[in-house]
């Protein structure tokens, strides 16, 4: 079974020609509720907003216990580039003095102070996660449907946005309904679920079950990524907390995998396009080669486009040094070699 699942994970990475990664906007912006516009309440709301931002871009254990993070949070207003109040919906808060507060933080200031730290940093290029969700109320189990389950839809949307995780839900067309049942999603044997998930061209899949128990909710989660399976439970809590716990688990795994160390100086990025990749072996060859270069700190496959596989590459040093290093390669040949720092570069994979 392990071999079979590993093969399915590889197929999920290379199954079709659509993008599985997207650029997440407004990583350093979020909304919170301030008790009032008084200074004390404003500072508390800013600190809460910064906590959300830091825990969506940093990776590592006990993020909020890190000394650098504690220092940043203690001086949270210093990192605000702008904020704005707006009125809450009348049914959202009984206190008329409460306000919805949108806060945007200065990315460069934050990155500068986080560089000496030990925590990893996850950039804005993030892979989509396919979410299979079963909802149980009063003993009846159903696939999640946003139209008929607005409370669950709102909670899932809020949680995924708070963690800045792009998500994708199955379309549940007739073919899918005929081939996949609720028991398949909840089963300990994941082969069938992963086979059906191939059509969505994702590298990570979250299967969850939300259960309404009186006034609270509980959940069970299973996450498939990097040929591994992780499982956890959410104890009976308000719906927003339970769904956030689900996406927190996803964030913990993905951020650890994709994060780079912020203490590396002079990190730059470039869009890297490679043609003549014909199969999984070629794909792995390019990835292994790029990751073997000391200058290159992280490589993220983004999509395919007009015959090219597209990567986001973060590197340390000058573009000139990177270009010269790649010209010595017996793996890739430059299609448009230039010393200029263009936004993207094109290479061809050389045949053996």
Structure description:
With 352 residues, the protein is an alpha+beta fold. It folds into 3 domains: 2-24 and 124-258, Rossmann fold (3-Layer(aba) Sandwich); 29-120, no CATH class; 267-349, Alpha-Beta Plaits (2-Layer Sandwich). Helix content is 34%, strand content 32%. The protein has 11 helices and 18 strands. The protein is flat. The chain starts with a helix and ends with a strand. Residues 1-19 have low confidence and may be disordered.
Secondary structure layout:
Elements lengths: L1 H13 L6 E3 L5 E6 L4 H19 E2 L7 H8 L5 E8 L11 E7 L1 H8 L5 E2 L3 E3 L1 E9 L2 E4 L6 H13 L4 E2 L5 H6 L2 H5 L4 H7 L6 E10 L2 E10 L2 E10 L1 H20 L8 E9 L4 H13 L3 E10 L2 E9 L2 H9 L4 E3 L9 E6 L3
Parallel strand pairs: 8-10, 8-11, 14-18
Antiparallel strand pairs: 1-7, 2-5, 3-6, 4-5, 8-9, 11-12, 12-13, 14-16, 15-16, 17-18
Helix pairs in contact: 1-8, 5-9
Which percent band covers the strand fraction? 25-35%
Overall 3D shape: flat
Could you name the CATH topology of the largest domain?
Rossmann fold
- What is the strand tally? 18
Distance between the termini: 33 Å
Element string (H = helix, E = strand): HEEHEHEEHEEEEHEHHHEEEHEHEEHEE
């Amino acid at each position: 079974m392990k071999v079979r699942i590993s093969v399915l994970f590889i197929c999920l990475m290379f199954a079709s020609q659509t993008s599985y990664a997207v650029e997440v906007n407004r990583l350093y912006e979020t909304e919170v509720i301030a008790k009032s516009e008084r200074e004390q309440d404003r500072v508390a709301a800013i600190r809460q907003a910064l906590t959300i931002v830091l825990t969506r871009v940093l990776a590592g254990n006990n993020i909020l216990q890190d000394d650098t993070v504690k220092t940043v949070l203690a001086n949270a207003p210093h990192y605000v580039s702008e904020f704005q109040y707006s009125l809450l919906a009348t049914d959202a808060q009984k206190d008329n003095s409460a306000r919805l507060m949108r806060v945007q933080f200065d990315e460069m200031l934050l990155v500068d102070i986080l560089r000496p730290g030990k925590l990893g940093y996850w950039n804005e290029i993030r892979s989509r996660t396919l979410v299979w969700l079963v909802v149980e109320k009063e003993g009846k189990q159903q696939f999640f449907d946003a139209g008929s389950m607005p409370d669950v839809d709102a909670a899932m949307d809020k949680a995924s946005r708070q963690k800045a995780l792009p998500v994708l839900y199955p379309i549940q067309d007739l073919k899918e309904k005929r081939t996949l049942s609720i028991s398949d999603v909840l089963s300990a044997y994941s082969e069938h679920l992963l086979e059906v998930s191939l059509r969505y061209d994702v590298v990570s899949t979250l299967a969850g079950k939300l259960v309404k128990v009186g006034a609270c909710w509980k959940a069970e989660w299973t996450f498939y990524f990097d040929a591994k399976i992780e499982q956890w439970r959410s104890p009976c809590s308000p719906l927003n907390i339970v769904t956030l716990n689900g996406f927190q688990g996803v964030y913990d795994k993905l951020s650890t995998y994709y994060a780079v160390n912020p203490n590396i100086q002079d990190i730059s990025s470039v869009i890297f396009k490679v043609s003549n990749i014909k199969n999984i072996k070629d794909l792995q060859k390019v990835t292994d080669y790029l990751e073997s270069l000391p200058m290159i700190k992280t490589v993220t496959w983004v999509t395919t486009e007009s015959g090219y596989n597209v990567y986001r590459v973060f590197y340390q040093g000058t573009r000139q040094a990177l270009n010269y290093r790649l010209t010595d390669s017996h793996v890739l040949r430059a299609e448009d070699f230039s010393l200029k720092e263009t936004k993207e570069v094109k290479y061809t994979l050389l045949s053996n």
